[in-house]
């Protein structure tokens, strides 16, 4: 119990735990918790420390951005995060799914896709 500060390997292991509690829903909640804490920590990080860590991490990141652009975006990230609040969402959204079974008895989650499309439109794209 309580609050713990994890290193990278510990945070990755924590966010990947599968067979505890409500399976995937709790696992994705742990992943969102780790990402939220990363963003919170980046808001107050020393720019020199951040620069050093980005320089170490960039060689392990694959993207269609070139390395110089990625570096610039990474350096701007802490100042961009200060002005924004984050909000967590999960798809399928609450009350848009149910436990179900396949014809041969395997457990699955049934999803109301139309309700989730509306949820995304109203919460991400702000389209009514």
Query: Beta fraction of the residues?
Result: 5-15%
Mean pLDDT: 84
Distance between the termini: 42 Å
Number of helices: 5
Relative helix content = 40-55%
- CA-atom Rg in angstroms: 19 Å
Structural category is: mainly alpha
Could you give the count of β-strands? Answer: 2
Order of helices and strands: HHHHEEH
Contiguous low-pLDDT stretches (5 residues minimum) are: none
Strand order of the largest sheet: 1-2
Structural overview:
It is a single chain. The protein has 128 residues and is mainly alpha-helical. The chain contains 5 helices and 2 strands. The mean pLDDT is 84. α3 (47-57) packs antiparallel against α4 (67-82). The protein has a two-stranded antiparallel sheet with strand order 1-2. It is extended and about 55 Å long. It has helices at residues 8-16, 23-43, 47-57, 67-82, 113-125; strands spanning 97-101, 107-111. The longest helix has 21 residues, at 23-43. β1 and β2 form a beta hairpin.
């Amino acid at each position: 119990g309580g609050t713990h500060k994890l290193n990278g390997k510990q945070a990755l292991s924590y966010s990947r735990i599968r067979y505890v509690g409500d399976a995937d829903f709790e696992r994705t909640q742990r992943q969102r918790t780790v990402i939220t804490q990363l963003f919170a920590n980046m808001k107050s990080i020393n720019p020199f420390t951040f620069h050093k860590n980005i320089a170490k991490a960039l060689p392990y990141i694959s993207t269609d951005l070139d390395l110089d652009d990625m570096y610039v975006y990474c350096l701007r990230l802490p100042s961009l995060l200060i002005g924004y609040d984050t909000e967590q969402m999960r798809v399928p959204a609450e009350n848009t799914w149910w436990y179900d079974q396949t014809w041969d008895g395997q457990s699955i989650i049934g999803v109301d896709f139309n309700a989730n499309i509306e949820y995304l439109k109203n919460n991400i794209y702000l389209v009514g």
